[in-house]
Amino acid sequence: NSKAVIYGSGGNIAATDIAVSGSGNRAITITSSDGIASMEIGSASSNQAFIDLKTPSSDDFDVRLTSNSDGAGGSINIAGGTFAINGSAEVMATFTDDGAVSLYHNNAVKLATASGGVAITGDATFADSGKAIFGAGSDLQIFHDGSDSYVKDAGTGRLVVETDGTDVSLKAGSDNMLVAAKDGAVTLYYANASKIATHASGA
């Protein structure tokens, strides 16, 4: 023998607390006595079951969980607005219709999608030999192999370092090794002392 029991916080829910009905592909409909919320269980097709969570303002459903019997998995559908995954007192993730998907750490957004890509707040950390890779052909790679750090141009074009500032500097800590000034001299250093500098007529 089998039986189904619905429990509330104080024990079994009385028959007056809910109404259970069914029609069509909605095999079971459970509605709270005040009519504020309902849950429907049924089948959307021959191989898909669903559970709908609804409020009176819903034309169809607020949240739908589906499961496919043909091995195609399932889904969670949200009817508009923003869907959030929350911890006990913090936001963990939000999913906005026609907007951003945001991931949180300690209640602060760290990664969010945008129309042009993604926005990262804070650091992006890579393990040794883990690469930041740019270009469809992995053309530019930035990584640390555990011993040395690399900016690797693996593409067919040039590696261009471009600035809108006053100069490009190659430094070791606070010591200059090379300074290339915009519209000016390229200066080579030894022990942070200038040794060779170009000028308009040569060097």
Could you walk me through the main structural features you see in this protein, from its secondary elements to its overall organization?
This protein has 203 residues and is mostly beta strands. It is 0% helix and 53% strand. The strands form 5 sheets. It has a 6-stranded antiparallel β-sheet, with no helix packed on it. Strand 5 (38-45) and strand 6 (48-54) form a beta hairpin. 3% of the residues are buried.
Radius of gyration: 31 Å
Total helix count? 0
Distance between the termini: 98 Å
In the predicted model, the low-confidence regions spanning at least 5 consecutive residues are 1-5
> For the residues shown, what is the average pLDDT?
83
Number of strands: 20
Give the proportion of residues in helices: under 10%
Tell me what portion of residues adopts beta-strand conformation: over 45%
Order of helices and strands: EEEEEEEEEEEEEEEEEEEE
